[in-house]
Amino acid sequence: xTAAEPGRGGPATGTTGRAPAPVPRVPxxxxxxxxxxxxxxxVAGPLTTVQDLGxxxxxxxxxxxxxxxxxxxxxxxxxxxGNPGTAAALELTFGGLTVRFRQAGLVALTGASGPMxxxxxxxxxxxxxxxxxxxxxxxxxxxxxxxxxxxxxxxVAVEPVLGSRSTDLLSGLGPPPVSxxxxxxxxxxxxxxxxxxxxPVRWLPSPEDLVVLRVRLGPRDDWFPPEAxxxxxxxxxxxxxxxxxxxxxxxxxELRRSDDHELPSEGMVPGAVQVPSGGRPVLFLADHPVxxxxxxxxxxxxxxxxxxAQCVPGQRVRFRAVR
Amino acid sequence: xxxxPTSTARDLVRAxxxxxxSAFLVEVDSLDDVxxxxxxxxxxxxxxxxxCVPAARxxxxxxxxxxxxxxxxxxxxxxxxxxxSTPFAGGEELRxxxxxxxxxxxxxxxxTGLSGAEVVARHTAARYRVAFCGFAPGFGYLVGGDxxxxxxxxxxxxxxVPAGAVxxxxxxxxxxxxxxxxxxxxxxxxxxxxxxxxxDPPALLTPGTLVRFEEVAS
Lengths: 323, 218
Known about the structure:
The complex is a heterodimer. Chain A has helices spanning 71-80, 226-234, 305-308, and strands spanning 38-43, 47-51, 89-93, 98-101, 105-113, 116-118, 121-123, 129-131, 136-139, 144-152, 183-185, 210-217, 236-239, 247-251, 266-267, 272-274, 282-284, 291-292, 296-300, 316-321. Chain A is mainly beta. A seven-stranded mixed beta barrel of chain A has the order 12-19-16-17-14-13-20. By secondary structure, chain B is of the alpha+beta class.
């Protein structure tokens, strides 16, 4: 994960701080564009991408599914602003986003919890927030969780690729990550006005919390000696900084294999705990490769994969084997 | 075992393994059996299976819901009728024009004990089939190549392989659909756009596609 290079164009503060980012006075029509429905990105944050439910059905062609790393949080954000579940929103990694609205709108931030400001006024998250044209919305760094989902009524209307607007960091499909100075188009609202204005909030871990993820052993647990499986299900691991939407690299006990023969490439799923020859497991997330040549010792249950996606670097993780 | 027009998947499947709570790996003996089963499942999809990902010795079946009953799914799988014909039969051939001026052509010649011209002759003589895709969108693992051209991957991958690079490694040939890192040995390059996200299907090389390489001057 790379943070924005400091001192290179644009305001470099406000990406991780707790105070609202300074608002640069950039005229909307600076680049000669006609202002239309959209969001001017003033500060992009460490990594902000457009995400929807991804590209299911293309795996046999080598196309990862991609989509929101924490899909339930995306769904909640869309519901709060009355979008269909298929609408695209922004996935913020470590917050840090500042946008100006070219038109009035309705937004909601879900997932990772942290402060949000409308102009300089703190506003609520996990609820729908009306915004007037010209207002500036800033999202601070989260205090719990890693990935926030900012939905705008009407959806983020970038051009879809293979039926999805998701940025896939592994294959490069979809729009590039959001950058300062760009205008994110907003679609026309089609759904009914939202019924829920406040949503139930799922527990998300604080950085110091121990996160327990349920796994089912296999499909290649028989490639590992009992000691390695004991390490996997009893010891603590830590999420390292070498983690992204493709996968979380974990430090902790090395999971040594029984032997060193090569595994013919086989299909992978999100939540798969793959163990390369070095013994340091990688937990696959949304942009995981469709096939892989290292054995998968266990797979996180579907329900817990979004929780894995909310673990920050340094987070302590344990795996609990379930049937 | 005498030839019969069809058999059932039960005869092909060596094992099935749950992958988490919503997918299964189906193991078979060979790349040909993967292709037979893939074709059969394309004709008669299993209830609740949303995605089928063929690979080297397995097919991954992904289900719509967590907690799909494995017993009934596997019973249904066992009954699927599988053609016994060769997976190279039928279908159109995709012809891929190649300029054989790749950076590793000489090394491949050296490793195989052939001349550069013989490497090209053998690479263009074979008839290939896309066994499975992976690594990148539209990157097909082509089987059917001349065993004499079997060479190991590069000890360390190149950071940049150009789009259209035609390469070999292990038992496979491939064409890099877009510029990417890559560890295969480069024989040449094609101008044929193998991947175009605006096209339907976006990939020219999908599992089961038959392929021939043709030498061209440029």
